[in-house]
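Reading group handout, session on sequence-to-structure problems. Before we discuss, look at one worked example. The prompt was deliberately terse, the way you'd type it at a terminal:

> structure Lrp/AsnC family transcriptional regulator

The input record follows.
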Amino acid sequence: MKLDAIDLRILEVIQENGRITKLALAEKAGLSPTPCWLRLRKLEKAGIVSGYHARVAVRRLAPVASVLMEVTLANHRQADFERFERAVAATPDIVACWSVGGGVDYILKIMTADIDAYQRLVDSLLDRELGIDRYFTYIVTKTVKEETVLPLATLLPVSG
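And the output record:
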């Protein structure tokens, strides 16, 4: 789907405020409400807007441990990757997982109540024999930057 400058503006605005009113969105996009709403519906139907979410400041509620984990699998058959990825998808404390090129197979972002809970999670993954050969743990001591708003203007081509 080709996006024009107005589509891009709509996306930028709803990234910042998913609860914006239709009228305010239209105003910021430079359209009247009905055409703006139709464009937004088109973006939703195309799967470009995949949902509206709240950012929860969990650390204001309770202390948590954020951990990054590098994982290398022992074997690299498709079935091995699929088995590991199914386990990751079914584990709520693993909040993100990226398959990466280079010296490791995956990087995981894990959030647990504390380091002991993280270690119990790792032990359970290892006990399930998911093919993990090696893993390295990186404890997040401070979040310097974690964007939820993507820089769409620099990432996406815009049709004129």
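Points for discussion. First: The chain is about 40% helix and 20% strand. Second: The first strand starts at residue 65 and ends at 73.
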